Amino acid sequence: MLLSTIAQHLGLEFAGEDLEITGVNTLEAALETELSFLANPKYASKLAETKAGAVVCTADQAENVQRALISENPYFDFARCVAIFAKPQGEMKGISELAFIDPTATIADDVTVYPHAFIGPRATIGSGTVIFPGCYIGEDSTIGADCILYPNAVLMAETTVGDDCIIHAGVVLGGDGFGFAPTEHGVQKIPQIGTVTIGNDVEIGANTTIDRAVLGSTSVGDATKIDNLVMLGHNVEMGSNCLIVSQVGISGSTKIGNGVVMAGQAGIAGHLNIGDGATVGPKTGVGKDIPAGVTMAGMPAMEKGIFMRHTTLSPKIPDLFKRVKQLEKEIEALKK
Amino acid sequence: MLLSTIAQHLGLEFAGEDLEITGVNTLEAALETELSFLANPKYASKLAETKAGAVVCTADQAENVQRALISENPYFDFARCVAIFAKPQGEMKGISELAFIDPTATIADDVTVYPHAFIGPRATIGSGTVIFPGCYIGEDSTIGADCILYPNAVLMAETTVGDDCIIHAGVVLGGDGFGFAPTEHGVQKIPQIGTVTIGNDVEIGANTTIDRAVLGSTSVGDATKIDNLVMLGHNVEMGSNCLIVSQVGISGSTKIGNGVVMAGQAGIAGHLNIGDGATVGPKTGVGKDIPAGVTMAGMPAMEKGIFMRHTTLSPKIPDLFKRVKQLEKEIEALKK
Amino acid sequence: MLLSTIAQHLGLEFAGEDLEITGVNTLEAALETELSFLANPKYASKLAETKAGAVVCTADQAENVQRALISENPYFDFARCVAIFAKPQGEMKGISELAFIDPTATIADDVTVYPHAFIGPRATIGSGTVIFPGCYIGEDSTIGADCILYPNAVLMAETTVGDDCIIHAGVVLGGDGFGFAPTEHGVQKIPQIGTVTIGNDVEIGANTTIDRAVLGSTSVGDATKIDNLVMLGHNVEMGSNCLIVSQVGISGSTKIGNGVVMAGQAGIAGHLNIGDGATVGPKTGVGKDIPAGVTMAGMPAMEKGIFMRHTTLSPKIPDLFKRVKQLEKEIEALKK
């Protein structure tokens, strides 16, 4: 594809001679016919050495490269360039005869169902959606339009997924929440009769699990992105535009606002409120509500400023014990 | 179903006029024909506002509601009410022709096997058990009566599961333990020739993995409940009536007593003994044995009382450094 | 199998009368016809009580047992003995008619493909490899010779796996990395068009996920062993001979050297360099580069020596606050 065509397609100006672009790559690895990008000015020195045929960059960097696609947000516009060259996973079209589809299911036009998928009674699959092999769509589940369910994703009964969602391999939506009533003779299972509701434009990473509610619904808002191996307990209510990184765990009934970011391996206790725009650092253990906009880190969670000082001081604690011991000696001497 | 019928079914008294009950719900969301519950007196003020047609509660709360199902353990009895209205997942019956069942397998009466399940040589499946799509039951495995194996659950060869167990989607039982012998030229895999043995009435959450033993058996006792994404290493021996919350990891050969509770994301080192009734807090890192009945928390694990003080004091440590510095100055001044 | 045959097979000497060996076991559990081992001299006292018919041990222990297989590395040689008695999982041979194999795929001789597996366009499967039920091999993926892919393992498109690899049940290789460009109107997905490349003799534990690169390749070197429920982010480059224990998470673009060991639930931030032979303790949170050969532990990570002192002192911190308060009082008194 010609650089000029890409520029036109994205509504960007380009500087330099036109060129046939064969792909996208990093500044280090790009070939002479590939397109690269400079998002962080810190790496501007790499422009001198790159072989890239063209670079997506801000206007002030355009003269440092052979050809530029000029952008106010180079990282975003590079993402759009990558999308041009990206190939979707899988090559089948239509409904495989090796899939099991219950006769009461409603399958829109232009749906792809791979071999060995299972679509249960009264399930509804929206137009353009692709269901890879080994997926299980339980009875009365609803999936919107233009979704992708990668291999072996599982939606238990009555799960709802909006439009334009990506559900990665091995995801489990709507398994039973972990709910038991204590009795004198051990615990009694509380049947989990609620559901899971996923908004539009949500992405859920490989092997992540989101449990069905005990009553009502566990929910994830529009445009929220969840990484691999995350756990959302029953009745969690998560807002829109959140970013939840790998291996995070959120306990039951916690409410997460909009635009919340949680870094890897963070854990959130149950029945909490996490305010809009809050940020939770990696490995942080949250046991209390977080107000909107606040950043917490550490175990137990502290405001980030305190945590940073804590981090600096932690390795000095052994020395602090020595200093206190020394002080005690000196006071003893002084008292004498 | 009439309230009177529910009361009779559960052996409870009811107060107020009879009513056709259509479902169960929270006090906030219940409709006028739904049944709700009050388990924690802290929420008693909600009784004034609920629309619920009837409430499971203790005798002293009965006069505050329109209709009451009187219970000494309202949470437990509400769980039993939910069970009345709960619908099992899946609607198939019998053995699907799209499943693969080895001719040497023994399948009891009244077993359901969904399409695309695989049951290997000499496997045994007990009466009333349901095997969802994509499950793999390896050779010489034994599953008891009235179990449910949700989609894509995997039991590698020679795994044993008792009666009345629930194995959620994506669970892997009997994968190889992580065992290697160091040599001069890198590590050598130690074949894992042991098994996994699961008791009766055990529940195992989605995408949890329990490794087979190197020799002997990794085991989980009766009525133990394990949440999602938990990892049990080879030769772990877990007792009965334990509650293991999501994302816990237990390293090889550790012995867990009966009635042990582990909160989310806790980690237990290998070759330890965790006593009966011990409790491990969230995100706790356990490196030593825990005596029976003791509660540990923190990383590294401490007795809970110390951890709680630690939690309160942690954010004040930066200030403590300042105080010690000030003391050092003052002592220096005094010495002069 | 005769003890003499085993000795000959492994190139070891044996002491004592010959015996028909029926299996391998621990010193405690071994029967009179079973082989056991003593690797750690700490447990030498168990030799007096074992019923084992023969023991793999060092020359100096040989006179304490009825029959000995004499070894300079008993743990390693016992692993080799176990391998003699180990039975591979699964009993099928050849290509099942219930598998889906794209006509453009290249399947070498002596490959086994189980029912309900899916092999996509232009995939290549090397000689002797076994693909269990429910596996998904995406288009243009390449798997070497003598690999095992256990049930429901997923290789998304263009994944490369070397020879002699073991991919356990539920593993997902090549799911999209977690990459989004922030914009004024929420985040924009960055298509992940790179791949995953796994070396030779690699083992990957159940339900582990390794994401495809945004550009280039996420890679794992030869003979590296990865446990269950581990997460490797996009563009991670891991060296050879590493041991990565369960539930570890490694963020995007981090480079891991050769011979690195990471204990359970450790977490590594993105864009870091972890040097050859470094060790990361359990639950450790790594936010900075680690030089070659260094051992880090704790959250935040510290050198192990400091962490150990920290661990000892942590429970004494509440007391330290009291001591400082006392000092402050005494100084105040002295000043007066």
TrEMBL record, chains A, B, C:
Name of the top EC class for this enzyme: transferase
Catalytic activity: a UDP-3-O-[(3R)-3-hydroxyacyl]-alpha-D-glucosamine + a (3R)-hydroxyacyl-[ACP] = a UDP-2-N,3-O-bis[(3R)-3-hydroxyacyl]-alpha-D-glucosamine + holo-[ACP] + H(+)
InterPro entries noted in UniProt: Hexapep, LpxD, Trimer_LpxA-like_sf, UDP_GlcNAc_AcTrfase_non-rep
Signal peptide segment: none
CDD domains: LbH_LpxD (cd03352)
Biological processes annotated in GO: lipid A biosynthetic process
Catalytic residues identified in the record: 234
TM segment ranges: none
EC number: 2.3.1.191
Pathways involved: Bacterial outer membrane biogenesis; LPS lipid A biosynthesis
Entry's Gene Ontology molecular function annotations: N-acyltransferase activity; UDP-3-O-[(3R)-3-hydroxyacyl]-glucosamine N-acyltransferase activity
All residue ranges annotated as the UDP-3-O-[3-hydroxymyristoyl] glucosamine N-acyltransferase non-repeat region domain in the record: 18-83
Keyword Endoplasmic reticulum: no
Highest taxon above the source species: Bacteria
Pfam families: Hexapep, LpxD
A GO CC term attached to the entry: membrane
Keywords: Acyltransferase, Lipid A biosynthesis, Lipid biosynthesis, Lipid metabolism, Repeat, Transferase
Function: Catalyzes the N-acylation of UDP-3-O-acylglucosamine using 3-hydroxyacyl-ACP as the acyl donor. Is involved in the biosynthesis of lipid A, a phosphorylated glycolipid that anchors the lipopolysaccharide to the outer membrane of the cell.
Quaternary state and interactors: Homotrimer.
Family from the record: Belongs to the transferase hexapeptide repeat family. LpxD subfamily.
Name of this protein: UDP-3-O-acylglucosamine N-acyltransferase
Organism of derivation: Halodesulfovibrio marinisediminis DSM 17456
Record lineage: Bacteria, Pseudomonadati, Thermodesulfobacteriota, Desulfovibrionia, Desulfovibrionales
Gene that produces this protein: lpxD
